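thread from #wetlab-drylab

HS: before we spend reagent money on co-crystallization trials with nicotinamide-adenine-dinucleotide, can we at least see a predicted complex? here's what I'd submit
DV: go for it
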Amino acid sequence: SSDSNLIRATIFPGDGIGPEIAQSVKQVFSTAGVPIEWEEHYVGTEIDPRTQSFLTWESLESVRRNKVGLKGPMATPIGKGHRSLNLTLRKELNLYANVRPCYSLPGYKTRYDNVDLITIRENTEGEYSGLEHQVVRGVVESLKIITRQASMRVAEYAFHYAKTHGRQRVSAIHKANIMQKTDGLFLKCCREVAEKYPEIVYEEVVIDNCCMMLVKNPSLFDVLVMPNLYGDIISDLCAGLIGGLGLTPSCNIGEGGIALAEAVHGSAPDIAGKNLANPTALLLSAVSMLRHLELNDKADQIQDAILKTIAEGRYRTGDLGGKSTTTEFTNAVCDHL
Ligand code: NAD
């Protein structure tokens, strides 16, 4: 019996710590009275020929139909020769931009107090096109694909994001001095879009220099846009600036208004099943999903409760130097609601 006033959203609990932190999101949402009905989907145990992956066609259809979802981390076995689950999702659902906000959490002290960065990562091509083969024995090749279409799309998204979120600056991160054709095309697209946004400062920064600047003084940056591989690495670096992977959310933006939120981190096999994971990253990802649905009151309420719990410091998980379990932390967030 489903209530027609409820918004349907897809949830993939995922692997490793995924089910534990997904449980935390469900508990917090139900305590906050969020009007969402979850359609729960698990990764299959055999390859679905329609997707060439362990993700079923029904799972993909669920996201396409609902247009919003939340995903836990999915483990990709190295060298097993089938398509990565994350790559399948990104390609099949055309999730072209991955947005990763990263800001200092009040009350949780790190080297920097005022980190406030947004990395926007191209999500469908670059080195992650999944096009690798052996040329001859002992020589392998991986194709880095950069297209005008995908670069324009992510650049447009980055500038639009900057404008609608009151941001001042967009930095395009690249290595066009070496990768002249690929990163060169990416930069050309960013420049073209930048011209349409004269109110936003545009700059180009070489990736190695960007890393050095970020760890020395993160306030030099505002919104960063970049090809796939660089985005993967830089966003983990940014997570490190504010206290680690347990804290940083992200949202994948797809064609036709699809939003699939997920934590930046992976399945954390070292702590899986032990009730030790920090659910904050997935909770904040769920909050970004609520903002996408324009359920801003609920989003604010939940975000405040999370930030208060962390600031108070009584209940913190191991990654933040505390002793609390996932359940204890989640209960504390619920108490603040
Ligand atoms: P990981 O992010 O799973 O773990 C890195 C370290 O961070 C570990 O020490 C882990 O315990 C810790 N950590 C991560 N999330 C945490 C949390 N919420 N609370 C506390 N500690 C946390 O990275 P990995 O070990 O390189 O990857 C493990 C698996 O996850 C691999 O199969 C990889 O392919 C997959 N992965 C999936 C995604 C995704 O689904 N988006 C992203 C990255 C990695």
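DV: Residues 17, 73-76, 86, 245-246, 262, 265-271, 277-278, 281, 319 surround nicotinamide-adenine-dinucleotide (CB under 6 Å).
HS: ok that's useful, forwarding to the group
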